[in-house]
């Protein structure tokens, strides 16, 4: 039976139709496979309860001048630093041309609160926690691979590609911030 | 070897019955009677040693998983419980932890043997490529396993290594969050790492089957590196059993003695004291170092002053191995007959050791004494940073420049026509190889 059908339609035409069916069936199978795989892959994304821990509040009066407090937000450390007048002066007076990732100090703090610097405490290289006061630029130094940050948390030397990240935060009152 | 005919004759009724339904005894018997080049030396015993390593890791791992709790609150304590309270738990865990190191010692020697004797060259490219895949899976498995005790090194190792993925432009960040299952390394990460650490050894076992399949299709290489002519099969090969089962067995006993030395007398010699401190996301240890077997690649990562560039170089150092069969232009397999290449090979082994040593040092620390010489671009010349860079340059040059060029330009020694010829003629050049 099958053979006679092939002859009737002509070999060329039949081959094309068969190819089409093969490709269409193959494409449908790949599509179906992707649709089945997606929920499995997506389940590895952050779960609802993980995302629910998205914001915290912090009372700025806890930090004294020249002091740094480390708080945990989304499992990561956040540095809240009350900068001294000298540190602030150094951060403001650094010309942008001296920076690897140029960003003015004013863009990294909130207006009227420029003494407080709030940054994520993970080195932008591979995520270690830099320590304050040991670097060449008066700011942080990462012991893992030797990145130096200045008093504004900007990268000055070493393998890190970017400045310490300023998280999204806002002043709820004069002394209280909400991160996230 | 690929056209090896079956000599198995089923004797008992059960064997005959089974042989027409599931010829599994025939499969084993054929494997044991496989014609094997008679000149294989002890460098060829690491294949069997590695198979044993995989079995030891899976057996001890399955047992450890019965006592371990993959939860950030309990993981560290459950490992301590294994060490103190579980019957023989300390021995099982020390075997598993040191077993990983033993596995890597054996795999590095196995790979260097392949490199020296040209075991990657035609017609054995697929054996080598599957082997590289196994090596890559081993690194992944070892990394995942190291995170599970949830000590300080576990946590910060995971932080640093997952951050490598974040270095990929555009997709890096979302992929990183997906991989960790949250904005930071946390319980979701630990759970999936445990799941994958349990899965990957079985993927490795599957790849080992492919590795052996390819080996038996192409036939084993040998120290002389020639393909055995058909008419010499009978003279130049011996059955795998008992000749090489005994040789492998002897090597395995020696290897297990080394293994036992570590497990019983210095079980923590290859580990880091920091990993006996519970993970703390707010404190980074002063000096993060991976396990010794990853140090050369870690050194390469740190040698490049650019984040993404460093990641590319590190993966490239493993990636280049996959295309090795096409980088080597020489027609001669064994470096016994390639004196120029042998010199470069010895230098490569030394450079590999230097890279490993550099990976454990602080990049800015001076190599010789405590003095400074002069600053070259971004670091003092007398620093591990620059030693690492020179070594990294040689690592890549060995594969990408030396190998293609030497193959075209060198004059190899005369290759014997059969593997018994160098033995019968006194084998003066060969003894040095």
UniProtKB/TrEMBL annotation, chain A:
NCBIfam families documented for this protein: Rieske_proteo
Q: Per the annotation, how and in what number is the cofactor bound?
A: Binds 1 [2Fe-2S] cluster per subunit.
Q: Which Pfam families match?
A: Rieske, UCR_Fe-S_N
| Places the protein is found | Cell membrane
Family that this chain belongs to = Belongs to the Rieske iron-sulfur protein family.
Membrane topology note: Single-pass membrane protein
Q: What else is known?
A: The Rieske protein is a high potential 2Fe-2S protein.
Organism, by scientific name, is Brevundimonas denitrificans
Q: What is its main location?
A: membrane
Would you tell me the protein name for this molecule? Answer: Ubiquinol-cytochrome c reductase iron-sulfur subunit
What quaternary arrangement does the UniProt entry report? Answer: The main subunits of complex b-c1 are: cytochrome b, cytochrome c1 and the Rieske protein.
So what EC number does this one have? Answer: 7.1.1.8
Q: Which reaction does it catalyse?
A: a quinol + 2 Fe(III)-[cytochrome c](out) = a quinone + 2 Fe(II)-[cytochrome c](out) + 2 H(+)(out)
Q: Which residues cross the membrane?
A: 20-41
Q: What is the lineage of its organism?
A: Bacteria, Pseudomonadati, Pseudomonadota, Alphaproteobacteria, Caulobacterales
- UniProt superkingdom: Bacteria
CDD domains per UniProt: Rieske_cytochrome_bc1
What's its job?
Component of the ubiquinol-cytochrome c reductase complex (complex III or cytochrome b-c1 complex), which is a respiratory chain that generates an electrochemical potential coupled to ATP synthesis.
UniProtKB/TrEMBL annotation, chain B:
Q: How does it sit in the membrane?
A: Multi-pass membrane protein
Please provide the record's keywords in A-Z order: Electron transport, Heme, Iron, Membrane, Metal-binding, Respiratory chain, Transmembrane, Transmembrane helix, Transport
Where is this chain primarily localised?
membrane
Give me the segments passing through the membrane. 42-70, 91-111, 126-148, 160-179, 199-219, 240-266, 308-327, 339-363, 383-406
Q: Does the keyword Transmembrane apply?
A: yes
Supply the InterPro entries for this chain. Cyt_b/b6_C, Cyt_b/b6_C_sf, Cyt_b/b6_N, Cytb/b6-like_sf, Cytochrome_b, Cytochrome_b_C_euk/bac, Cytochrome_b_N_euk/bac, Di-haem_cyt_TM
Q: Which PANTHER family match?
A: CYTOCHROME B
Family, according to the entry, reads as follows: Belongs to the cytochrome b family.
This one is known as Cytochrome b
Q: Which organism is it from?
A: Brevundimonas denitrificans
């Amino acid at each position: 039976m099958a053979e006679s059908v092939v002859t009737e339609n002509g070999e060329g035409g039949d081959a094309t139709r068969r190819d089409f069916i093969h490709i269409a069936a193959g494409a449908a199978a790949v599509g179906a496979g992707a649709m089945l795989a997606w929920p499995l892959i997506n389940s590895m994304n952050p779960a609802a309860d993980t995302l629910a821990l998205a914001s915290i509040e912090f009372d700025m009066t806890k930090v004294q001048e020249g002091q740094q407090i480390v708080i945990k937000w989304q499992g990561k450390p956040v540095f809240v630093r009350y900068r001294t007048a000298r540190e602030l002066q150094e951060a403001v007076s650094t010309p942008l041309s001296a920076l690897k990732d140029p960003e003015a100090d004013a863009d990294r703090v909130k207006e009227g609160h420029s003494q407080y610097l709030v940054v994520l405490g993970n080195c932008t290289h591979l995520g270690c926690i830099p320590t304050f006061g040991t670097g060449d630029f008066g700011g942080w130094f990462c012991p893992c691979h030797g990145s130096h940050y200045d008093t504004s948390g900007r990268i000055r030397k070493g393998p890190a590609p970017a400045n310490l990240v300023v998280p999204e935060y806002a002043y709820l009152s004069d002394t209280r911030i909400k991160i996230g | 070897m690929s056209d090896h005919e079956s000599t198995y004759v089923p004797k008992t009724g059960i064997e005959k019955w089974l042989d027409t339904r599931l010829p599994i005894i025939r499969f084993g018997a054929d494997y044991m009677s496989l014609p094997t080049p008679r000149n294989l030396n002890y460098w060829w015993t690491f294949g069997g040693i590695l198979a044993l390593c995989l079995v030891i890791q899976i057996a001890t791992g399955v047992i450890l998983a019965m006592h371990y709790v993959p939860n950030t609150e309990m993981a560290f304590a459950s490992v301590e419980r294994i060490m103190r309270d579980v019957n023989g738990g300390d021995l099982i865990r020390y075997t598993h932890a040191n077993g990983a190191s033993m596995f890597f010692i054996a795999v590095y020697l196995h790979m260097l043997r392949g490199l020296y004797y040209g075991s990657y060259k035609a017609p054995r490219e697929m054996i080598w490529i599957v082997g590289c895949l196994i090596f890559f899976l081993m690194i992944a498995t070892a990394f995942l396993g190291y995170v599970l005790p949830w000590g300080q090194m576990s946590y910060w190792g995971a932080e640093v290594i997952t951050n490598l993925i974040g270095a990929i432009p555009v997709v890096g960040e979302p992929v990183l969050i997906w991989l960790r299952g949250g904005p930071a390394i946390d319980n979701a990460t630990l759970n999936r790492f445990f799941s994958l650490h349990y899965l990957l050894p079985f993927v490795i076992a599957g790849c080992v089957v492919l590795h052996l399949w390819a080996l038996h299709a192409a036939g084993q290489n040998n120290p002389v590196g020639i393909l055995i002519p058909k008419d010499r099969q009978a003279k130049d090969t011996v059955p795998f059993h008992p000749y090489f089962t005994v040789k492998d067995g002897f090597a395995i006993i020696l290897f297990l003695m080394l293994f036992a030395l570590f497990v019983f007398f210095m079980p923590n010699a290859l580990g880091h004291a920091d990993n006996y401190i519970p993970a703390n996301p707010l404190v980074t240890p002063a000096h993060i170092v991976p396990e010794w077997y990853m140090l050369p690649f870690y050194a390469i990562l740190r040698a490049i002053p650019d984040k993404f560039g460093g990641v590319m170089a590190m993966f490239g150092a493993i990636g280049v191995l996959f295309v090795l069969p096409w980088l080597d232009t020489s027609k001669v397999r064994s470096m016994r007959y390639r004196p120029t290449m042998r010199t470069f090979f010895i230098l490569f082994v030394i450079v590999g050791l230097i890279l490993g040593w550099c990976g454990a040092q602080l990049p800015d620390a001076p190599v010789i004494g405590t003095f400074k010489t002069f600053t070259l671009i971004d670091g003092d010349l007398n620093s591990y940073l620059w030693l690492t860079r020179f070594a990294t340059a040689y690592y890549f040059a060995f594969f990408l420049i030396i190998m293609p060029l030497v193959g075209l330009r060198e004059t190899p020694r005369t290759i014997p026509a059969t593997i018994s010829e160098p033995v019968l003629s006194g084998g003066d050049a060969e003894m040095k190889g």
